[in-house]
Amino acid sequence: ALLFYQKALKIRQSTLPSNHPDFGTIYGNFGGLHQEMGDYSTALKFYQQALDIEEKYLPPKHPTLATSYGNFGSIHSSMGDKSKALEYYKKSLEIRELSLPINHPDKASSYNCIGSVYNSMEDYPKALSCFEKALEIQKQAFPEKHPALASTYDNFGSVYSCMEEKQTALSYYQKAFEIRELSLPPNHPDIATSYNNLGTIYSSMGNKDNALSSYEKSLEMKRTCLPSNHPSLITTYNNIGLVHQSKGDYLVALSLHQKALEICEQNSQHSQSEAAASTYNKIGSAHHSMKDFPKALLFFEKALAVQSKSPNVKDSNLAITYSNMGLTYHEMSNNEKALLYYEKALEIKEKSLTRDDCDLATTYNNIALVYDSMKDYDKALSFHQKVLTIRENKLPSDDLVLAATYSNIASTYYDIQDYSSAVSFYNKALGIREQSSSVDDNTLATNYNNTAIAYKLMNDKANALIFYQKSLTVRLKTLAANDPSLATIYTSMASIHSSKKDYSNAIVLYKKAIEIREKSSSADSLELATNYNNIAVAYKAIEDQKHALTYYEKA
Predict the structure, then answer these.
(1) Which of 113, 178, 182, 346 is least surrounded, with the fewest CB atoms within 10 Å of its CB?
(2) Nearest 5 degrees, angle CA 333-CA 334-CA 340?
(3) Under DSSP, is residue 89 helix (H, G, I), strand (E, B) or coil?
(4) Is the dihedral of CA 524, 529, 530, 531 positive or negative?
């Protein structure tokens, strides 16, 4: 396309004066092409050349100027400058309001563009208002099943998805899909886009099977109607890979991310693009999930190398890479480097996000956990509090992420031996987890166990026993009968009964622990020896010298 535009430009340059209005159209086309290629600075120069000519020769409210202002809005949006994007889109709309019929489709286009910027700025009410105006115009300008309406329904879906209203988002994405399926050829790329949107919303809802099915249909269609190295395939391969990652199928995920990377590397334009950096990040994340931290770090560094060379890198994407590197260094117990990269991510996010953004809370949480590892508990609590302030304001009161926050704070209080505060926050976490149908059994059992330990250290034996029993009940449902962690709980409960001089119950529980450990541990195991000694003490306390002597000898 670039070659033919260049030929057209040469012909006009040889036949027309340099400031002829036709050059405005050509420069605009050049700008659009360079924007698609990700070369935003060059695109901006061409758009400016087009606008300079058009402003000189056209009336100030001419519709062509609206198109140029719209192009400026689009390029600034691509560059992440939302305020400038909004400024130019509004200029474009102002001209169209004055120069076009009341229900002209171009007005709907302007409202959709403005709404999309508001959506990216998280001003969801204004975004919805714009999309409603766009839809109102389109319903009067087009038939009910026109593809233009599908794009607007997609926009509604995007806003509701961002607002965490997943079911409403799904209904709009389905409306868009139904229109496209009825009005477009069977293998049209826009139908593939709809499948991709459905896959994304299903994935965010945790419906992995439907997500995978939708993404695979999108891929099948794109393979039919697009070249094998088309950039759109990069996104689809990566999306399918992410679903497989979430299912624990890391090798399958890696093969799909590798296909995406091969497309990036086949095209010099994409090998140093955000798509390549994003793919490196996804490959790194798969290796991270497989606990291959050095290899994960290698791919995160590749992502960072690409982003460092790109003049148009989005700060949000750079923050993702820094966060991934911080997470990996933390897993490798390199707390200093983990903190360094988390702080780089935080610096970006604090400049670009509102103070109550949940993504900002995630970075605060990561930093808090590093300070916990470094035993700098004052700083850890300070960052945990920042996390809590945001999440309590932004998340539903029964959100499992909020439960995890309470647990993290409880663990920090536990580490500084403030067991009363620890219990308070462990119980807040349980208040959410006990009511959730999707909580992981291991997470719930661990929460019960941690609460029990804190109560025990407060010498609140009654509550300690209650929570050990709750932990035991969950673990008995999910673990093998001879799992060593069951022996640990039996031992903890037995020690409390023993301290209460309830030796008969203590002996029953010590025997259960011993039975497990005799099957799973070597005879000289420290845990087993301790159990033998403790049960001997209990027998001695009830003056059963024969059994006491037997277990002392075993110990």
Answers:
(1) 182
(2) 135
(3) helix
(4) positive
Is 308 a domain residue?
A: no
- What is the rounded distance in angstroms from the CA atom of residue 118 to the CA atom of residue 107? 17
Distance of CA 243 to the CA centre of its chain: 12
**Nearest CA among 479, 470, 404 for reference residue 439:** 404
253 domain residue, yes or no: no
383 exposure class (CB count in 10 Å sphere: 0-12, 13-18, 19+): buried
How far is C-alpha 124 from the chain's CA centre?
19
CATH of the domain at 490: 1.25.40.10
CA distances from 7 to 1, 17, 536 (A): 10, 17, 96
Number of domains in the chain: 1
pLDDT digits (tens, 9 = 90+) for 303-346: 999 999 877 677 889 999 999 999 999 999 999 999 999 999 99
Report the C-alpha gap between 383 and 377 in whole angstroms. Answer: 10
Under a CB-based contact definition with an 8 Å cutoff, are residues 274 and 320 in contact? no
Task: Express each pLDDT in 450-482 by its tens digit.
Answer: 999 999 999 999 999 999 999 999 999 999 998
Task: Using alpha carbons, list the distances in angstroms from residue 346 to 319, 352, 367, 385, 438.
Answer: 8, 10, 9, 16, 31
Token pair for 42: 């060059």
Length of the chain: 555
**Which two three-digit tokens encode residue 27?**
């420069």
Residue 429 sits at the vertex; the CA angle it makes with 424 and 435, to the nearest 5 degrees, is 130
CB 339 within 8 A of CB 373: no
Closest CA to 194 of 208, 207, 184, 206: 184
Q: 540 is in which domain, residue-wise?
A: 479-555
Tokens of 302: 């590749």
Amino acid at 448: Y
Do the Cβ atoms of 76 and 84 come closer than 8 Å?
yes
Q: What is the maximum alpha-carbon separation in the chain?
A: 115
530 occurs within a structural domain = yes
Task: Write out the two tokens for 473.
Answer: 């009940």
* Secondary structure letter of residue 309 according to DSSP: H
Q: Is residue 555 part of a domain?
A: yes
Residues of the chain with pLDDT under 70: 1-22, 268-272, 312, 521-524
Q: Work out the angle between the directed axes of helices 400-415 and 441-457 (0-180°, nearest 10).
A: 30
Q: Are 160 and 117 in contact (CB under 8 A)?
A: no
Q: Tally the C-alpha atoms within 13 A of residue 340's C-alpha that lie toward its C-beta.
A: 7
Distance between CA 117 and CA 385 in Å, rounded?
31
* pTM, to two decimals: 0.82
